[in-house]
Amino acid sequence: MLVSPEARADAESDKLRDALRSATAQTRALEDQRTALQAKVADAEREKAAMTSQIAAAKAQVKEVEKTHREAVDEFNQRLEDRNQTLEKWKSAYEEAATVARTKDAERAKFEGEATAYKANTKSCVAKNALLTKVGRELLHRYEGISFGDMVVINEPLIGARRVQIQNLLQDYDDKLLEQKVTP
Question: Of 46, 62, 70, 131, which has the maximum CB count within 10 A?
């Protein structure tokens, strides 16, 4: 079959037209893709800028939180140190008060012991005083009962028996008085 040159040119022209249509369609598709990709890139860049600003804000917020935390820790440590110093002052004051209390308690116990001893000593003195009074009254009673005749017999120089009795009696009274002597 022989094809005329005109038919051949039409066929080739059709082929070229088809190829041109196809190339145009591909070009449009590629242009659409490129436009879509450029929109995606623009969105990604906007998102990147937004994220960058969010990161910067988050970093600033982290720095602020760290600063606040540091200040809170410093304040807490200062309050803890103040509390420790106050506690030490209270401890030393307590120790001082306890020492004073122990000293006062020891003095009180000492004075109570001395008071008990003085009370016992006073009772002993009162008892001995009563006995001395009794001995003194006995002596006065005997002295009142001495007559002139008794005086003559006591001073009788030869035998002196009554004188020995009187001296023994006086010695007994002297012993009774010495027994009642209070010793410190």
Answer: 131
Distances (CA, A) of 72 to 77, 78, 79, 80: 8, 10, 10, 12
Stated pTM of the model = 0.40
Exposure letters 129-163 (e unless 16+ CB within 10 A, then b): eeebeebeeeeeeeeeeeeeeeeebeeeeeeeeee
d(CA 134, CA 167): 20
Read off the pLDDT of residues 136-158 as tens digits, 9 standing for 90 and up: 777 767 766 666 666 665 666 65
- Exposure b/e, 17-40, CB count within 10 A at least 16 = b: eeeeeeeeeeeeeeeeeeeeeeee
Q: Are 182 and 128 in contact (CB under 8 A)?
A: yes
State the residue for tokens 């017999």: 153
The domain limits of the chain are 11-117
Higher pLDDT, 157 or 126: 126
